[in-house]
Inverse folding.
């Protein structure tokens, strides 16, 4: 038998209708939940049905349909072979039930009854004093009444779904309404794996960490679509999804055949009645509209934001022009006086990951500084933190570094595989100079890579001197200073594979503190003392306590750039 359809009227309900309620159920009492999705067929079967020629059988096969209540009115007593052929044809077609009628008493062989029970096909016998025509009107009325009620209910659910979308409730609004109808845990996620709404006790599942991780959820669901992102099943039926000990079901949210998202069900879809199934179908349509709408809005926002950023960092637009653009988005540019940049390698991140990263960063930053602005670009995320009124540069810089460190400390688990670098530009006096802070942050990232710095957050203040030296490293005076100061030390390191230049630089940076210097170089203080003595011997003077110690310090920094 084929799986019974979801639409139509349960057979047990039809048995309560006048006429059919007089029928006697011969077999399959437990199968009376079969739904009758089609108007029953009345066939006058004569004894010619018993013939062996195929042309007497094929018409019967073509008329029988799935989920159909089939009424056979025999004008003669059917033979065992006739009953067997009829049973086989009906079972193969996926009929819901057979109703048999004859003016004479019918004798049903036990083997035939047993076979019907095995096939799961309910057989009903209509008394001979009931004419088949008497069943037509009440059955058709019941079909029409129920179909009209389902249509009204479907229309109502559809209107309520659209109403929630128009009210701005998004995916969560769709899920909440669906939950009130179905009453079982249900979850809506985009094809990227980002959850748009959930209802029910999902957090109690042992697999919740996996479900709430967009990257993992996307990988788990990807086998359900083909290489073009399309759903394998054209009918869009729910498919089983097993996560460890958790058995779930997923129903696609599609636009045509393209999968836009998924409804994930924590229950058996077969447990739902027809109303719930229709509500789920309407929710899938509404979710498709909502996901498409959000995607279109994001596209427009990204284009407008990209234009704003291009104007911001190009220095071609006046402050008033930028403020006018920002006001259209409801952005307040006051107290936006510095830039934080988050960057990554282009080949390291997909478009979907980049957008999830921007969303996550926005949530984290706005938790700390609610009026901050976050912008997404192709290879970076630009943050304009909201700084307090009358905030001095030192305090503002500390706020910036605290924000950057907070991002790293609270980095979402589903983004751990994305390696990022964070740079901070210096705090400016007003938004008018914000472009300077942006270029300083870019410069800090460049110098971080150039110098091989390992710490994840770098400020322009950290690399300011290197940036200055790099711009002047070709000047004759700088070249002379370099060779006059630590030239011999450079040659010695190259020849003997030592690190005396690096030792001198760290000693300068640590303000001549032995223990701090030794800790940074990962050597014993006694070894450091030996190195410092060798540096003095190689140079022929003490570079640390010398009227030219600043020249030596700058030369050690310049060596990092060569």
């Amino acid at each position: 038998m084929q799986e019974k359809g979801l639409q139509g009227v349960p057979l047990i309900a039809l048995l309560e209708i006048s006429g059919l309620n007089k029928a006697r159920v011969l077999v399959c009492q437990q199968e009376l939940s079969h739904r009758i999705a089609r108007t029953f067929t009345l066939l006058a079967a004569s004894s010619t049905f018993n013939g062996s020629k195929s042309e007497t059988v094929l018409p019967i096969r073509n008329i029988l349909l799935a989920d159909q209540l089939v009424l056979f009115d025999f004008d003669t007593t059917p033979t065992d072979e006739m009953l067997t052929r009829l049973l086989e044809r009906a079972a193969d077609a996926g009929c819901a039930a057979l109703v048999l009628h004859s003016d004479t008493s019918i004798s049903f062989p036990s083997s035939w009854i047993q076979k019907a029970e095995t096939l799961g096909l309910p057989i009903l016998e209509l008394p001979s004093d009931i004419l088949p025509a008497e069943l037509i009107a009440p059955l058709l009325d019941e079909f029409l009444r129920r179909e009209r009620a389902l249509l009204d209910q479907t229309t109502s659910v559809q209107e309520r779904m659209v109403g929630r979308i128009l009210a701005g409730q998004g995916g969560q609004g769709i899920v909440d309404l669906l939950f009130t109808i179905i009453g079982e845990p249900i979850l809506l996620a985009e094809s990227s794996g980002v959850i748009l709404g959930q209802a029910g006790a999902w957090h109690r599942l042992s697999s919740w960490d996996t479900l709430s991780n967009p990257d993992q959820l996307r990988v788990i669901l990807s086998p359900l679509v083909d290489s073009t992102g399309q759903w394998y099943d054209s009918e869009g039926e729910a498919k089983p999804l097993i996560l460890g000990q958790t058995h779930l079901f997923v129903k696609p949210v599609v636009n045509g055949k393209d999968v836009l998202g998924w409804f994930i069900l924590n229950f058996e879809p077969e447990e739902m009645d027809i109303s719930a199934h229709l509500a789920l179908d309407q929710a899938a349509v509404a979710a498709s509209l909502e996901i498409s709408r959000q995607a279109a809005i994001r596209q427009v926002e990204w284009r407008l934001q990209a234009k704003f950023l291009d104007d911001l960092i190009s220095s071609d637009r006046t402050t008033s022009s930028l403020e006018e653009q920002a006001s259209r988005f409801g952005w307040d540019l006051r107290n936006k006086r510095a830039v934080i940049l988050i960057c990554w390698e282009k080949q390291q991140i997909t478009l979907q990951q980049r957008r999830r990263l921007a969303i996550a960063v926005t949530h984290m930053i706005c938790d700390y500084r609610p009026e901050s602005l976050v912008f997404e670009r192709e290879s970076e995320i630009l943050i304009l933190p909201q700084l307090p009124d009358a905030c001095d540069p030192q305090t503002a810089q500390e706020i910036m570094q605290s924000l950057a460190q907070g991002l790293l400390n609270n980095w979402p688990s589903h983004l751990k595989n994305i390696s990022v670098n964070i740079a901070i530009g210096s705090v400016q006096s007003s938004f008018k100079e914000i472009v300077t802070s942006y270029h300083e942050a870019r410069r800090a990232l460049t110098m971080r890579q150039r110098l091989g710095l390992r710490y994840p957050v770098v400020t322009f203040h950290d690399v300011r001197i290197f940036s200055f030296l790099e711009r002047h490293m070709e000047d004759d005076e700088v070249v002379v200073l370099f060779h006059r100061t630590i030239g011999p030390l450079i040659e010695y390191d190259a020849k003997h594979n030592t690190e005396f230049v690096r030792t001198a630089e760290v000693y300068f940076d640590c303000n001549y503190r032995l223990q701090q210097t030794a800790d940074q170089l990962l050597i014993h203080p006694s070894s450091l003392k030996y190195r410092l003595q060798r540096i003095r011997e190689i140079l022929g003077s003490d570079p640390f306590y010398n009227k030219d110690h600043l020249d030596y310090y700058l030369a050690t920094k310049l060596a990092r750039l060569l």
Observations:
- Confidence is low (pLDDT under 50) at residues 1-6, 47-58.
- The longest helix spans residues 274-314.
- Residues 185 and 204 are 11 Å apart (CA to CA).
